[in-house]
Every structure is written in structure tokens, then in C-alpha cells.
Amino acid sequence: MAEAQQLSQAAYDRLKTEHDDLTTRGRIDIARKIEVARELGDLSENGDYHAAKEEQGKMEGRIIHLARILLDAQIVDSSGSDSVGTGATVSIVFDGDDEVERYLVGSIEEQRDDVIVVSPGSPMGSALLGAAVGDTVEYEAPTGAMLKVKVVEIE
User: Fold this and answer.
1) Per-residue pLDDT, 3
2) N or C: which end of the chain has fewer CB within 10 A?
3) Residues of the chain with pLDDT under 50
4) What phi and psi values does residue 64 have, to the nearest 5 degrees?
5) Where are the alpha helices (DSSP H) in the chain?
């Protein structure tokens, strides 16, 4: 059995909408593209047909991927928490730097334009879990360097 993926309600809803769209409109659109390409003649030398079939394969792969995520998804609500948990957006400052950076601790499926996603299982993500505003946590970067970050805000 697959491990449950923790998602915010907003991410779950977005993925469910994408899945529903691909399994309805998406499949209809690609079937039309394939049919139009078939009408152009010899399939062995038909670039439109091969491109449509490739697009269909990628779409079906995405549908399967989304279905697996949605089947085992665990909805998490980190709002109102005093400590960093999965699904939380945290603002941090690296030791020796003044620039505030925002990270979302969660699944890559939570990706948004305004934050960088960091997995809760990554060195930074696991160090941040449970931290509160004002805490400084230390973790080993992939390069082997020890890094310190201070939590300045949790959303």
C-alpha cells in the first residue's frame, strides 16, 4: 500500500479538479486530435498522429499519478498552529543573512508561485518540523555544511 501523502485541503481540491478535468474534457480533446490526425492518411509517417498519441500517453500517466495521490491523501490543517507542521508556510532567515525566505513544508503537489516547497523528510524540512517562531534550528545540507535558520513567522 502506498504511503499517505499529506496535502492541504486547497491542494487536494486543486488536484481533484485537475484529475476530473483530465478524465473528462482531456480525454475527449485528445480523442478528437487522434481522430483528426488519422484522417490525414498514412499513420506511419503522420507526425500529428504520433504527437497526439504521445500527448495521450503523458496525460494518462498524469491521470494515474493523480488518482494514486488522491486515493491515499491525508488532509492536514496547519492553520493556527504555534509550531511548524506539514502544510505550514514558514518564513525563515538563514544564519548570517538578513533576507527572509518563505517555504512551504509539504508535498511538491503543494507548489505555488509565492513559496518554495521543502519536503518534510528533507534535512531542512525535518529540522523545521515542531519549531516555533523565534526558534533556531540546525541541519546538514546535502553539501555536508551545517546550516542554521531562525523561524520568524508561521502561516
Assistant:
1) 66
2) N
3) 1
4) -65, -45
5) 9-21, 27-38, 47-72, 123-128
